[in-house]
Amino acid sequence: MPELPEVETTRRGIAPHLTGHTVADVIVRHPQLRWPVPRGLAGKLRGCIIQAVERRAKYLLLRFGHGTLILHLGMSGSLRLIDAGAPAAKHEHFDLVLDTGRALRLTDPRRFGAVLWTRNDPAQHELLRDLGPEPLGDNFDADYLYLASRKRTTAIKLFIMDSKVVVGVGNIYASEALFRAGIHPGRAAGSLSHERCARLVAAIRQVLHEAIRQGGTTLRDFTGGDGKPGYFAQELRVYGRAGEPCTACGATIKQMRQGQRSTYYCPRCQR
Questions:
Q1: Same structural domain for residues 161 and 244?
Q2: Is 38 a catalytic residue?
Q3: Which one of 59, 189, 196, 260 is most buried, by most CB atoms within 10 A?
Q4: Is 110 a catalytic residue?
């Protein structure tokens, strides 16, 4: 599932090709994604200029003068720039055709992605308004995490994966950040000291920055806006390494289930 680094990688890849360009057409091949693609979208966007390409959590925001197109990649979706006349394959459901002769094409085999439109402030959209702070932004720091976690008995890994607490820290990145911070994933969130919260915030930022630089993590089917896979999988220290030696101490990496997800950790390094 594309997480924050994958979506940010996509944003950076497509933004230079979209910003300042005019929409020539909109092609909707399958209107029923996770939510229906709005009717009449072509009429709303044809002839309009894309002013900016932004990201909020795992949503991409294409800003126009009269509204915002909200895109989500779902479980297995991807956005790629292709020649506008390229024939569409089975799972290629949506094209945003540009005045350059290219098109932004959404591929989504499971159809859990979204193409939505709002004329209002997208921050107030029902899908975005209750989201927590961006993990790479100024509002996510040790003070925030410490105060948010007080009296919370939820395991710290599940806590930082809660999008109402902080956005974009998916399963892979949560495991990796907790390893770097030396925190056991099952520890109660409310038991962390301010110092350990500071270490965890720094680790989350470090892991996400590194993943973005590497183009995301390709474990199955993610590709960026240029069609290339992400390479952060080569840097994973615990995720997917159950039974292998810890790169720091040599102990055997363990695996457990949390919230129906696999968690990987070092029983010696993480306390």
A1: yes
A2: no
A3: 189
A4: no
CA atoms within 13 A on the CB side of 111: 14
Residue 20 lies in a domain: yes
92 is catalytic: no
- Residue 44 has φ and ψ, to the nearest 5°, of -75, -30
Residues 173 and 257 in one domain: yes
CATH number (domain holding residue 10) = 3.20.190.10
Query: Which of 55, 56, 58, 241 is an active site residue?
Result: 58
CA dihedral 172, 112, 230, 106 (to 10 degrees): -170
**Annotated active-site residue in 3, 8, 92, 176:** 3
Domain with 90 in it: 4-124
DSSP assignment of 124-192: GSTTTTT----TTSTT-SHHHHHHHHTT--SBHHHHHT-TTTSSS--HHHHHHHHHHHT--TTSBGGG-
Q: Any bridge partners for residue 252, and if so which?
A: 245
Q: Which residues pair with 68 in a beta bridge?
A: 63, 118
Residue with tokens 């995490």: 145
Both 46 and 160 in one domain: the answer is no
Q: What angle do CA 12, 108, 39 make, to 5 degrees?
A: 95
If one counts the domains in the chain, the total is 2
For residue 216, what are its two tokens? Answer: 């995301």
Q: Would residue 133 count as lying in a domain?
A: no
Determine, yes or no, domain membership for 270.
Answer: no
Which residue in 12, 44, 63, 261 is the catalytic one?
Answer: 261
**What pTM did the predictor assign?**
0.90
55 is known as an active-site residue: no
Confidence (pLDDT) at 220: 40
List the catalytic residue out of 2, 5, 122, 135.
2
Mean pLDDT of 54-83: 96
Which CATH number do you get for residue 148? Answer: 1.10.8.50
